[in-house]
Amino acid sequence: MKIGIFANLDKDLEGRATTALVEFLLPRNFEVYVSEQLECLQLPVRYCDNATLAACDIVVVFGGDGTILRIAKECARTNAKIFAVNLGHRGFLAAVEYVELSNIFNDIASGNYVLDTRNLINVTAGENTYLALNEAVIARGAQTKMLKTEVRVNGALADKYASDGVIVSTPTGSTAYSLSAGGPIIAPDVNAVLITPICAHSLHSRPMVINSDNTIWIKLLRAETYAYLNIDGDDVQKLQSGDIFLVTKSEYSVSFIRLKKYNYYEKLLQKMRYWSSFDK
User: Fold this and answer.
1) Which parts of the sequence bind NAD(+) (predicted)?
2) Burial class (CB in 10 A: 0-12, 13-18, 19+), 59
């Protein structure tokens, strides 16, 4: 079995988690591949780029949700399974906390787990198409004036917003930026997409949950200079007045390995309580 390891060294301090896992795997005859970004650890493994890493059977990710997002889309294209270990703060996508990692990898290697499959969306702007696991955002950036946008679903006018931007998120992304902007939480097994205006200058403008098989069309009607198209936290393209982008359901999905005791609602409650406390 091929095991890939992808880690954020800002979270995996001195590569301790990566090193411990490699030392566990090598004597058990696993083929171990490690992200080339971790070559500084000088481990006796094959170092490779993200595309090669995603060709492994299982990719173990050490970090927070941002780290997981950076490798998840590569894994979606290859059907590699992700086992995510939270070394960050929120960690909605992680299967376990690092303190829980001991004694469980034998179960993972023997297939004693369940899969949690998350759908992605395609975001097309001009000649460019992007994959998003969490969300696509049109945002005003540093300009002071609001954006004006028009949103259509399957060609029908859904709303026009004067706002700081618009978020189109998957159920996975409903606990991310959209939640901070007042959007609802959507369970990951719901076939839906969420449209959330950011600080809309209208009392009637509210988040909308629609079927993910629909096509969402968003036009930037007016921007003071330009707006940004942001995919999963990264600015990928500038948009000017008159530009349009489309959001559709992707043919790709990504599978997260979960222990059989994992329960989405228990994990959600745990994370929400943590982030609602003042002593975190």
Assistant:
1) 65-66, 70, 134-135, 145, 164, 175-180
2) buried
